[in-house]
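Team,

Forwarding the record for the chain on the shared tracking sheet. I've put the sequence and predicted structure together so nobody has to dig through attachments.
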Amino acid sequence: MKTFSLLCSTVAGLALTGLTATAADLKAGDAAPNFKLQGSDGKTYSLADFKGKKALVIAWFPKAFTGGCTAECKHLKAEGAALKKFDAAYFTASVDSHEGEKGNAAFAKSLDLDYAILSDPKKEFAGALGVLNERGMAARWTYYIGKDGKILFVDKAVKPASAATDIAAKLKELGVAEKK
């Protein structure tokens, strides 16, 4: 029985490693995976909503109602004017449910956010991006997607306390147009 358990653990580990390696291969120039996710504002968003129209920024965070995630979301609201200068839509996202007292809708409401948090509880989009960590939560990574639907950049060194100003600087560096 011990051998069987070890075999199952090994097979599961190899399967997860393969999934991570495949998804983690997404890089600048790759097409962003399609998605359809519910926002904390009650709307449903998809890649098609933005493709050909504007750039898209999705800042993933691990868990609603936690310290770093709260700091990141608050900074995006406080410094949102810097982001709104660009012809880009921006969201935060997690694999938390949309509903419930610990869901993303309640989290967004508690912070009085002026942008939507996307929920991916089935982890389909997060898995396709390769943003899931070993605990099954999203890593704190920010994806920049161009108007053409291709990934422009993946920031894997996000600092919650300066998230908005860092995103604005990256949008400028990537050549995302400012609104007219």
